[in-house]
Amino acid sequence: DIQLTQSPSFLSASVGNRVTITCRASQGISSHLAWYQQKPGTAPKLLIYAASTLQSGVPSRFSGSGSGTEFTLTISSLQPEDFATYYCQQLNSYPYSFGQGTKLEIK
Amino acid sequence: QVQLVQSGSELKKPGASVKVSCKASGYTFTSFAINWVRQAPGQGLEWMGWINTNTGTPTYAQGFTGRFVFSLDISVSTASLQISGLKAEDTAVYYCAREYRYRYSYMDVWGKGTTVTVSS
Fold this sequence. Notes:
heterodimer, A: about 110 residues, mainly beta, seven-stranded mixed sheet, four-stranded antiparallel sheet, 11 strands, globular, B: about 120 residues
């Protein structure tokens, strides 16, 4: 099974900051990685798929990169609505798996 | 619009069963797989498995075999998750999610989640 490890688990930042979240896979997954945003009490929302493709309607301040075993999600200029928990997910092979999440908090 | 509408919250006693439904609308139900994801209180997302909406074939992640059953009612574009022999540790929010599959897969439409609480 493929394990995903996100870092950091918690991140404190201010509006306007640039932040980067890393997701490392225990084995190569090509570009079969998605990123989701989840706010308290709501369902996850797809942000990026295929490691770097922005889902329709997602602001361009979100970007993804990487392939193989190391991936990043970058938010170029944090907005108040971006404070949430972010998860990566590998869809390369079964069982699909999620990272443990990164909680982004307001500094 | 494309959406997945899940059934409402459930409060069950240990040992009981529960069935969570996920009704699709706005798209051709059999064109996309349905995945199930669990989120225990204060915890992360856990992939439970998926069901092929063409064949009805379920695939379960380890830890979700035996008491968990995925099923379909194609006539009403609905997927269901049934959990039997409920335990306190089954207390969680259960999400269904549509999986787009082409060159790459991703879960682009999610239900709002169904809270299942198991308590005596």
